Amino acid sequence: MSLSTHVLDTVDGRPAAGMSVTHEFRDDRGWRLVGSDVTDDDGRIASVAAPGDLTAGVHRLTFASGDWETANGRECFWPEVTVTFEVTAPDEHHHVPLLLSPYGYSTYRGS
To answer: pLDDT tens digits, residue range 46-99?
Structure first.
């Protein structure tokens, strides 16, 4: 169905607006770019994968965390954060949020 994401800056307790995110899908030839976008003012990308682009299999989102931290005047241990996950029910909505600080991050499957 669809894939969305949300990035929260846990240092300031605010959305991470303006972060680049890339979506890729792994097939028998390796990783294939599905699309990329930038988080909005609320730190969200409502549709990383358009309907029909979310197929069963292994996907990954790569967040340009280092570029974002540098642009906001901070150092960051993570030049990028890559979250790899498997879609087994492509007809469902998938939400993959990222909680980010300069020296740590976490993620989960949201709703």
So the answer is: 998 766 678 999 999 999 999 999 999 998 899 999 999 999 998 898 999 999
Which of 15, 1, 6 is closest to 61 using CA atoms? 6
Top CATH class of 2-107 equals: mainly beta
DSSP 15: E
Mean pLDDT of 21-30: 95
Return all residues near 31 (Cβ < 8 A) that are at least 6 apart: 24, 25, 60
Residue with tokens 């699309």: 35
β-strands 2-9, 20-27: how paired?
unpaired
User: Which of the 8 DSSP states describes residue 66?
Assistant: H
